[in-house]
Amino acid sequence: MTAHSRALQVALRESRSVGFLWLGLTVLATLAGPFGTMDALAPGPRAGYWGGVIACAIGLHFAIRHMQHYLPAHRASALAGSVAYAVILAAGIFGVNVWLFPGWQGGDIASLLWLIMIVLVVAAAVHVGMTRLRPPQVPDAQADAHDAFMARVPLSKRGPLIRLEAQDHYLLVVTQNGSELVLMRMADAEAALQGAGLRVHRSHWVALAAITRVERHQGRIGLVMQDGAIVPVSRSNLPRLRAVGLLPA
């Protein structure tokens, strides 16, 4: 499984979990009617109110989590993110309630501070619950091998792989961000990148996603790659191309 497929599967699982979380919290808040919404709103508008508030809360959570990727991984940044989340969300709920419900009881600073504390406690409880319920991560040996291979490439040249070419004791690693020579055997690279591409020649490995077309010239097969190179395919490796559908069976 490639890194792209793994990321897509994780994103799909997370989106389903977020959808169920939004629905469950919306139903719960609609039935409970906290912060005076039970008396102020009929069931339909109350469901719309809480559906919107919870959607904003989830969106704010992901926005802050995204911003934290650019900060050092430290407890202080995590704490600052939690506090920012609670303050922004509580202030938003506070402002919406004051605007929607004239004469709403609780429209003072003391109530705002109390609301911020409630949101902080709830956010902490949800975080602990999600951490407990999250299934343990199973080490992916193939992903580790792929990451170890890419660690040999300078950071500025790392990117989606296009092809590898053996040059004496070195490999020319070609990515969408450039190329670099690394000291490595082709057999070791092929083992590390299993599933992402094919060895099509004694001196060439190609990423399946980077093949633009297959060419025939004087009875020989060549693969045109994203970087414009034409990679030769040895006769002994033609069955591999047929197996992945690049050549007719």
General description of the model:
The radius of gyration is 27 Å and the shape is elongated. It has helices at residues 3-32, 37-40, 43-68, 75-100, 109-133, 141-150, 186-192, 238-243; strands at residues 161-167, 170-175, 178-183, 197-201, 204-207, 211-217, 220-225, 230-233. The strands form two sheets. Strands 3-2-1-5-4 form a five-stranded antiparallel beta sheet. It has a three-stranded antiparallel beta sheet with strand order 6-7-8, with no helix packed on it. The protein is of the alpha+beta class and 249 residues long. The protein has two domains: 3-133, no CATH class; 141-243, OB fold (Dihydrolipoamide Acetyltransferase, E2P) (Beta Barrel). 54% of the residues lie in helices and 18% in strands. Strand 2 (170-175) and strand 3 form a beta hairpin. It is built from eight helices and eight strands; from the N terminus they run ααααααβββαβββββα.
In short:
The protein has 249 residues and is of the alpha+beta class.
Write the layout of secondary structure elements.
Layout: H1 3-32, H2 37-40, H3 43-68, H4 75-100, H5 109-133, H6 141-150, E1 161-167, E2 170-175, E3 178-183, H7 186-192, E4 197-201, E5 204-207, E6 211-217, E7 220-225, E8 230-233, H8 238-243
Number of helices: 8
Q: Tell me the quaternary state.
A: single chain
Strand content: 15-25%
- Structural domains: how many: 2
Could you tell me the radius of gyration in angstroms? 27 Å
Q: Calculate the terminal CA-CA distance, rounded to whole Å.
A: 24 Å
Task: Provide tags for this entry.
249 residues, alpha+beta, 8 strands, 54% helix
